[in-house]
Amino acid sequence: GNSxxxxxxxxxxxxxxFLTINCTYTATGYxxxxxxxxxxxxxxxxxxxxxxxxxxxxxxxFEATYRKETTSFHLEKGSVQVSDSAVYxxxxxxxxxxxxxxxxxxxxxx
Amino acid sequence: DAGVIQSxxxxxxxxxxxxxxxxxxxxxxxxxxxxxxxxxxxxxLLIYFNNNVPIDDSGMPEDRFSxxxxxxxxxxxxxQPSEPRDSAVYxxxxxxxxxGGHTEAFFGQGTxxxxx
Lengths: 110, 116
Description:
Chain A is mainly beta. Chain A has no helices and 12 strands. In chain A, strands 2, 5, 6, 10, 11 and 12 form a 6-stranded mixed sheet that branches. Chain A has a 4-stranded antiparallel sheet with strand order 3-9-8-7, with no helix packed on it. The termini of chain A are far apart. Chain B is mainly beta. In chain B, the strands form 3 sheets. In chain B, strands 2, 4, 5, 6, 9, 12 and 13 form a 7-stranded mixed sheet that branches. A 4-stranded antiparallel sheet of chain B has the order 1-3-8-7, with no helix packed on it. Chain B has a two-stranded antiparallel sheet with strand order 10-11. Chain A binds chain B through residues 30-32, 34, 36, 42-46, 49, 51, 89, 91, 93, 95-98, 100, 102-103, and chain B through 4, 31, 33, 42-43, 45, 48, 50, 55-56, 91, 93, 95, 97, 100-102, 104-110.
């Protein structure tokens, strides 16, 4: 079946620290992979995506590379800001529905 | 496009009452999803439609929940009768399928339902 496993939070970092949120997946076929971000009181927003192996998605300083050999799509950012505090969701789609991870809460302190 | 539009943004109702949540997907999108989000259970897929046809409703918790999509621009999620354990944020999302894969899912702002 299809599923996404992401590292559990909460994660607390100091401003300008390096961020990694791990995400691994199980999928039939060739999934597209996504990272979404949710700010308090809002819906999920697409942060970045990759549609095939070795693609790198990037946006707002965040990056993730589609690794087929390790079935992973880890989210990274070199220097986090207080404004990055949010919940991050890893997701996949193989053609019909989307499969979401459980979300990782990130808090960045000044 | 204004994005996925949900209404109401907030709903407070008494146990036993009927609740109807509404969603307008992005024009041209052929998939529509209803999700429920709670602290305890996270983000759960309730049901999704393709070209207005329900494809998978296995996530609908029980018969009190029903969803319809009478046309490509409107969907409803109804709870009758409502119970306190239905309190959650309900999201609608839409996407469209391109050869080789989906676009991303576009989410609405959600409806925060409180059943007292």
